[in-house]
Amino acid sequence: MKTERTRRLSTAEERRETVLRTAIGAFAARGYFGTTTTEVAKAAGISQAYVYRLFPNKELLFTAVVEHCFVQVRTCLERAAAEARGSSPEMVLSAMGDAYARLISDNDLMLIQLHAQAAAVSEPAVREAVRQGYARLVEYVRGASGGSEEQVQEFFARGMLCHLIVSMGADEVDAPWTRTLAAGMRHY
Questions:
Q1: Residue 6: which pLDDT band, with cuts at 50, 70 and 90?
Q2: Other C-beta atoms within 10 Å of 48: how many?
Q3: Cα-flanking dihedrals φ and ψ of residue 80, to 5°?
Q4: Is residue 72 within 8 Å of residue 109, measured between CB atoms?
Q5: What is the DSSP letter of 71?
Q6: Residue 76 · residue 99 · CB < 8 Å
Q7: Contact 128/116 with Cβ under 8 angstroms?
Q8: Degrees (nearest 5) of the Cα angle 117, 53, 21?
Q9: Exposed/middle/buried for 117, CB within 10 Å: 0-12, 13-18, 19+?
Q10: Whose CA is closest to 133, among 159, 95, 101, 167?
Q11: Between 89-103 and 149-167, two packed helices, what is the crossing angle to 10 degrees?
Q12: What does the pLDDT read at residue 37?
């Protein structure tokens, strides 16, 4: 007996999600300046013209990727705050910190954040996307944790230090300076 296979056509939104997922890998590997929309289109299996239909330029594609990554971080932090073993600011921030350390073990997400920060120096639209993303995260962390200004600042400072440690592979080097930087830090 023959079964008829029906092909389901992708909607523009499904294609947009595919392009975003593909672009994350491409931008993570080569950064904003080193990645072309042609590379993203080829990896997504679509034409460059179709990429431009979904995202009118590379800047809008990259800022959509940056925003997507901030949403992933926020979702991770929300889950951690809900599952924290206590409600004190210290317990909630610790749970969120642990969850974030696990999340950035996905190097693509961490690399997008690093590339976005680098591109923000000279690209106003990227700078604004990074600002808005951090603005929302800081306010979320403040509200969810009930932490003080100092506690929230330390949470983000430790996150940035975690980026540095992971990006340079400091955990692979046994030296006094790496032990100093990594003391009390969690990485996965």
A1: low
A2: 15
A3: -65, -40
A4: yes
A5: H
A6: yes
A7: no
A8: 45
A9: middle
A10: 159
A11: 20
A12: 95
Tokens at 134, concatenated:
């951090």
The label of the residue with tokens 């023959």 reads: 2
Total length of the chain: 188
Query: Could you tell me the two tokens for 103?
Result: 């999340």
The full DSSP string for 121-165 is: TT-HHHHHHHHHHHHHHHHHHHHHH---HHHHHHHHHHHHHHHHH
pTM, two decimal places: 0.88
Q: What are phi and psi of 85, to 5 degrees?
A: -80, 5
| Look-up of token digits 């983000």 | 156
Report the distance separating Cα 82 and Cα 167, nearest Å: 29
Torsion, Cα of 153, 156, 159, 163 (10° steps): -110
